[in-house]
Amino acid sequence: xxxxxxxxxxxxxxxxxxxxxxxxxxxxxxxxxxxxxxxxxxxxxxxxxxxxxxxxxxxxxx
Length: 62
Known about the structure:
Layout: H1 3-16, E1 24-28, E2 33-37, E3 43-47
Antiparallel strand pairs: 1-2, 2-3
């Protein structure tokens, strides 16, 4: 899956979910950044990027 496709799908999931309480969602495609404002006024940024060195598998912190 390509990064742009993944970012677009995340945007669609957040945008289409009425239960999430997200009245405002902005995409900055140039910087692969999603900005989310929740109903209670909090603002979050989601940065979509390929994880360097993780192409061959997952590693998790213990």
